Amino acid sequence: MMLTYILSFLPLSDQKEASLVSRAWYCAAQNALREDASVLSLISVLSPSLRVLDLSSCVALTNRTLQAICAYLTHLSVLRLAWCKELQDWGLLGLGEPSEEPTQEPQLHQELEHQASGPKEPPQPQGPSLLMLRALQELDLTACSKLTDASLAKVLQFPQLKQLSLSLLPALTDKGLVAVAKGCPSLEHLVLSHCSLLSDEGWAQAASSWPRLRHLNLSSCSQLTEQTLDTIGQACKQLRMLDVSMCPGISMAAIRHFQAQLPQVACIQSRFVGGADLTLTL
């Protein structure tokens, strides 16, 4: 039903309010909410041998369901949660649900930041966190837009992880980037498109941790300049594909210089760099 599909894109609080409009809206909102409930009901009976779980675009998926996944499906090697936009820091960290009172939101964020910074005696989580999925080799958090450095810097510690997408995370900063670099040193495929807070300074600290990187997408990272290209060229000698489309701080001259540094790069996506629409493929 089209109304159910439309309502599924609303935050859970808005879905509940929409259910009061009429009987038809109530049914549609309930169907949208059941999407998460159906996933939750299946988790405990899924085989512990399950290795790949793709819940992309399950927009009503909640933090509680993510914590159930972390508790029961600890052997997962692939977890895709793209566009699960209800996920928040406390869900990834295995913490209890915070108060919904608006006046407490700043305090919650400060608490999460304090926990992510690694105090002498870290608080015990009230539930399972993403850290329990130690076998992960691929993780997709594209457009989980409520996530911040407060959780990403704490839970993205997977030595075996090869593929990671953090695209469309507006709150991801250099601090989170550096923490991910230290926690996930085996990355071969990294997607960071539309992360507008990332800068040259962050890449100067992170790039050396990723010598195995082969595929890198930095499209629409608006603060990056040719300095980041130089850093990547020096640190990521295994790179084969680079996307810097729509990066206004990078020029075609900088891309040509990068290509000279790493002639083994087979494809450089550079649409609208320096006003050009061009892809260099060798």
UniProtKB/TrEMBL annotation:
<protein>
    <recommendedName>
        <fullName>Leucine rich repeat containing 29</fullName>
    </recommendedName>
</protein>
<feature type="region of interest" description="Disordered">
    <location>
        <begin position="96"/>
        <end position="128"/>
    </location>
</feature>
<dbReference type="InterPro" id="IPR001611">
    <property type="entry name" value="Leu-rich_rpt"/>
</dbReference>
<dbReference type="InterPro" id="IPR006553">
    <property type="entry name" value="Leu-rich_rpt_Cys-con_subtyp"/>
</dbReference>
<dbReference type="InterPro" id="IPR032675">
    <property type="entry name" value="LRR_dom_sf"/>
</dbReference>
<dbReference type="Pfam" id="PF13516">
    <property type="entry name" value="LRR_6"/>
</dbReference>
